[in-house]
């Protein structure tokens, strides 16, 4: 009997604990997604077998008349913002309340690799962002171009082997090997051999980062539900952490821990390392007179390795997704493909047949097609922020608390017929300079927006367009026996959307290479 009473009391206690915040949105008169006991909405993507991006897009679409919708991550209230005007407040106007991305929920303990620019928050983010911005300047991009050209030449050779074999090629994998080599060459001054070897070290690391295992999903779920309890469990699996640190150590040792004049990302890290400390104005702390406090951090090896990690991870996967999906769309839209190819031929003629920074900049129709590809498959398909303090939502009587996650579904906004006529159709003309101004602010954001927008946007656009131009210059791209007009998104995708079965296409040579 005593045991039974104890069990009943325990069940009641767990019930109250697991639902303690579930009236949060109701009390504020905000429509919300009905939470599941204990898990909130966290496990909905697993139950519905959809990616995180698809889950948020479905939630966005389910409330067409709301400016925002409440949801729960475990017991923690979160909010999905639908209205472009409010999105502008979150990403730009009221950025001081939303500078955290909130992937690391525990402010004090941050895994070494999580100190990268994408996942770190607060002052480390602010100071590192200032330091790293110079790595993406126009002069740096121009200086990188010979390496881009070298990598596109290798890409052409490998693509040619596939074309000669008359077999279909998974362009998702091919372009991932191209962007891996590109990032290896431009960022780290090494030949990562991803194009030459199907199973190179770098490609294996890249695949592992973006193929979350059951362990990764479990840790992600637990850390978001119980940030305190799971604060010491590493977000990234040990093999990813070890491999990254070992690669960074190796490359730095090859350069004797001093910048070698290549002016690449590793050189920038080594320059920072020589300074030992990073000092700047705090985004979090204020002096009594209201001015920002000065803060400083040690530039230790782990902090630098974390930036190398994100340069690699964010640098290759998003661009390979964008370039392969663009090739896929062009295979299914031969008239757009022909127009891109004609432009590539004409522009290259003006530059002695050679790909260069200015030539890619002159490929205006290809750029429109690139933007349209990203509209149809934005990768990643959602943006995250976290409130840094209490925030009153403008134009309403709703106030949300510090620590509320904010989600914006780029995927749903990009496919909403309110903002894009006939949204399912691939139509690069939407991004013609005469039409682009008709696109409402804060509905097309494949690179995010505001001070936390993608730092590598121009580099991503350059490597994507250069890779696609190199393919179109030499090959016709058509659907093959296993191509699906609408590829299926892998439900295991957490941030960048992977595709089940890749993107198989057929390549045929335009002329002998
Ligand atoms: C087509 C290619 C790319 C796409 C679609 C893309 C997309 C994005 C998006 C959506 C974000 C989040 C922005 C936000 O929350 O407002 C982001 C952030 C970021 N991206 Fe990219 N990205 C691309 C290429 C790159 C490249 C080439 C690099 C570096 C080599 C890079 C590095 C980063 C970093 C470090 C952040 C975090 C910035 C911060 O929080 O300050 N990305 N990217």
Detailed description of the structure:
- This protein is α+β, with helices and mostly antiparallel strands and 513 residues long.
- It has a single domain (2-509), classed as Cytochrome P450 (Cytochrome p450, Orthogonal Bundle).
- Helix content is 48%, strand content 11%.
- The protein has 19 helices and eleven strands.
- A four-stranded mixed beta sheet has the order 1-2-9-6. It has a three-stranded antiparallel beta sheet with strand order 3-11-10. Strands 4-5 form a two-stranded antiparallel sheet.
- Strand 1 and strand 2 (76-81) form a beta hairpin.
- Helix 12 (265-275) runs antiparallel to helix 13 (301-332).
- The longest helix is centred in the middle third of the chain and has 32 residues, at 301-332.
- It is globular.
- The chain starts with a helix and ends with a strand.
- The structure holds protoporphyrin IX containing FE (HEM).
- Protoporphyrin IX containing FE is lined by residues 117-118, 129, 310-311, 314-315, 318-319, 322, 379-380, 383, 446-449, 452-456, 459-460, 464.
Radius of gyration: 24 Å
Binned, the helix content reads 40-55%
Q: What fraction of the residues are assigned to beta strands by DSSP?
A: 5-15%
Strand order of the largest sheet: 1-2-9-6
Number of helices: 19
Under the CATH scheme, which architecture would be assigned? Orthogonal Bundle
Enzyme class: oxidoreductase
Binding site for heme: 454
Catalytic activity: an organic molecule + reduced [NADPH--hemoprotein reductase] + O2 = an alcohol + oxidized [NADPH--hemoprotein reductase] + H2O + H(+)
Membrane topology: Peripheral membrane protein
């Amino acid at each position: 009997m005593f045991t039974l009473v104890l069990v009943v009391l325990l069940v009641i206690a767990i019930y109250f604990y697991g639902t303690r915040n579930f009236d949060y949105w109701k009390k504020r008169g905000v429509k919300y997604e009905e939470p599941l006991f204990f898990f909130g909405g966290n496990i909905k993507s697993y139950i519905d077998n959809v990616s995180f991006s698809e889950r948020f897009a479905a939630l966005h679409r389910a409330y067409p008349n709301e400016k925002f919708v409440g949801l729960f991550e475990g017991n923690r209230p979160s909010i999905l913002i639908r209205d472009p005007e409010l999105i502008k407040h979150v990403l730009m106007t009221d950025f001081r309340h939303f500078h955290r991305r909130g992937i690391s929920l525990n402010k004090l303990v941050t895994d070494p690799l999580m100190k990268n620019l994408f996942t770190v928050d607060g002052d480390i983010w602010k100071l590192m962002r200032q330091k790293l911005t110079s790595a993406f300047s126009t002069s740096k991009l121009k200086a990188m171009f010979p390496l881009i050209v070298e990598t596109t030449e290798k890409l052409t050779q490998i693509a040619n082997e596939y074309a000669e074999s008359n077999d279909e090629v998974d362009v998702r994998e091919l372009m991932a090997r191209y962007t891996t080599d590109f990032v290896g060459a431009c960022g780290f001054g090494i030949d990562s051999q991803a194009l030459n070897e199907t199973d190179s070290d770098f490609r294996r690391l890249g695949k592992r980062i973006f193929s979350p295992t059951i362990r990764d999903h479990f840790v992600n779920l637990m850390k978001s539900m119980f940030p305190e309890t799971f604060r010491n469990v590493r977000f990234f699996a040990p093999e990813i952490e070890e491999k990254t640190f070992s690669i960074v150590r190796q490359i730095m040792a090859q350069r004797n821990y001093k910048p070698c004049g290549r002016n690449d990302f590793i050189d920038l890290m080594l320059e920072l390392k020589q300074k030992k400390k990073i000092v700047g104005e705090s985004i979090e702390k204020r002096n009594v007179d209201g001015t920002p406090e000065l803060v400083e951090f040690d530039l230790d090896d782990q902090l630098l390795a974390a930036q190398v990690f994100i340069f690699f991870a964010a640098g290759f996967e998003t661009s390979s997704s964008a370039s392969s999906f663009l090739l896929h769309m062009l295979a299914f839209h031969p008239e757009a493909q022909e127009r891109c190819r004609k432009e590539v031929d004409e522009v290259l003629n003006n530059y002695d047949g050679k790909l260069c920074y200015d030539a890619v900049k002159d490929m205006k129709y290809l750029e429109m097609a690139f933007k349209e590809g990203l509209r149809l498959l934005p990768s990643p398909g959602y943006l995250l922020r976290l409130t840094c303090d209490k925030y009153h939502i403008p134009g309403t009587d709703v106030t949300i608390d510090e620590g509320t996650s904010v989600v914006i579904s780029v995927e749903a906004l990009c496919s909403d017929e309110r903002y894009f006529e006939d949204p399912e159709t691939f139509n690069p003309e939407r991004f013609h300079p005469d039409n682009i101004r008709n696109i409402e602010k804060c509905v097309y954001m494949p690179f995010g927006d505001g001070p936390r927008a993608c730092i590598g946007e121009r580099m991503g656009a350059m490597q994507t367009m250069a890779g696609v131009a190199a393919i179109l210059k030499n090959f016709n791209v058509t659907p093959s026996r296993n191509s699906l007009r609408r590829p299926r998104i892998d439900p295991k995708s957490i941030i960048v959307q992977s595709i089940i079965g890749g993107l198989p296409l057929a390549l045929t040579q335009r002329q002998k290479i």
